[in-house]
Specification:
Radius of gyration: 19 Å
Number of strands: 13
Order of helices and strands: EEEHHEHEHEHEHEHEHHEHEHHEHHE
Helix content: 25-40%
Oligomer: single chain
Strand order of the largest sheet: 4-5-13-10-11-12
Length: 374
């Protein structure tokens, strides 16, 4: 395809994409770089106009090399729903909800899973491992089931039972780990050294998740995009997807990126407020929003950069306000989302003075409400 290299955003080191690499030697996150000049000659607005609105509509910008290794369950192409009641209550005329909760396994993670599993097949992998707070594990278990890959998922002890049930139903081996996501991620890293193909919030997952950005740009001329932030991968990826469309001449719009975290795990938002370029690990995580309970976010620095480069902002909100926003979405808009999805709307309510009445604001709803059932 059109991949050129992995680039470390922290130290600038480059690596060939033919190798299996997860992090830079300096510890920084890796980003996949492409030959956009070549892509521009092979991918035009005319091409888009002939394709259905779905994840693989943007296949030239995705890194799976072999067509037979594209594993899809029908992810992407999610609706953008205009708010009727909440917008009126908040005094916003153009509030929209990006419904990532309608993806096949109920969350945005399916976009990244499609690409990650495809790359695992490109590399000839037979068994994979990942750490997950729930949604990613549920998603990967579905996609690896279709791909025929042996899968081990490491999850923190405190995780939604329904998410565990999803993983088990697809045949994955589940190992409960004492501690938070970071503890599970460390164990997954050790298993990778023993021959497992490692999946998670690494470079290729972000390549799948960036299609959220592609789609939003096609759907609306947004002024702000608001989303929950955990590991930071989705934030960075959406911004990258938007930047790619600008590079290819498919758009001239760069919305402000707004990241909202739980007050009990506010890594990126604290760094933003302190005007720091680096994220500090949270020693004690205290939030019910488990999908964003990432004490040491893998792509936190990249998320922070996306927020600043776009002129956006980050903030944190209490669990009480997150739950209130989640319930508001259900009662006022008929949208049943998991508690983590409530963080984005809670952030808008908390910072209402930063949103213009006539601004087009997109609120990303990341997961389905059934995910939270015990």
């Amino acid at each position: 395809m059109f991949e050129k290299s992995f680039l470390c955003e922290k130290c600038g080191e480059e690596y060939p994409t033919k190798d299996i690499i997860y992090r830079c030697e300096c510890g920084g996150s890796l980003d996949v770089k492409y030959d956009y000049i070549d892509i521009k000659e092979n991918f035009t607005r005319k091409d888009l106009d002939t394709r259905i609105f779905s994840h693989h509509r943007y296949r030239e910008l995705l890194p799976v090399n072999k067509k037979e290794n594209i594993i899809s369950l029908g992810e992407g192409g999610t609706p953008l729903l205009k708010s009727k009641n909440i917008a009126e209550q908040l005094g916003l005329e153009e509030l929209y909800f990006k419904l990532e909760n309608v993806n096949p396994t109920g969350s945005f993670k399916d976009r990244g899973s499609s690409v990650e599993v495809g790359k695992a097949l490109d590399h000839g992998a037979e068994k994979v491992v990942l750490a997950s707070t729930g949604n990613m594990g549920a998603s990967i278990s579905a996609y690896t089931a279709k791909a025929g890959l042996e899968t081990t998922i490491l999850v923190p002890e405190k995780v939604s039972k329904i998410k565990l049930e999803q993983m088990k139903r697809h045949g994955s081996e589940i190992q409960l780990v004492r501690g938070d996501y970071s503890a599970a991620a460390e164990k997954a890293w050790e298993m990778m050294k023993k021959g497992f193909y490692l999946m998670g919030d690494y470079a290729y997952r972000g390549e799948g998740e960036k299609t959220v950005g592609h789609e939003i740009i096609e759907q609306i001329d947004a002024d702000k995009i608001v989303m929950p932030v955990g590991n930071g991968t989705l934030m960075h990826s959406i911004y990258k997807g938007i930047d790619e469309f600008n590079k290819l001449g498919l758009s001239e719009n760069t919305p402000e990126m707004v990241g909202i975290q739980a007050r009990g795990c506010s890594t990126v938002s604290e760094a933003f407020k302190e005007d720091s370029k680096r994220i500090k690990k949270v020693e004690i995580v205290d939030t019910q929003a488990s999908a964003i309970a990432c004490a040491d976010p893998l792509d936190g620095d990249l998320a922070l950069k996306a927020i600043r480069d776009s002129g956006g902002f980050a903030d944190s909100v209490t669990d009480r306000k997150i739950r209130h926003a989640r319930d508001l979405l259900a009662r006022e808009e008929g949208l049943y989302v998991e508690i983590t999805s409530g963080a984005a709307l809670a952030g808008i309510i908390e910072n209402l003075e930063k949103f213009g009445k006539n601004e087009k604001v997109v609120c990303v709803l990341t997961g389905h409400g059934l995910k939270d059932l015990a």
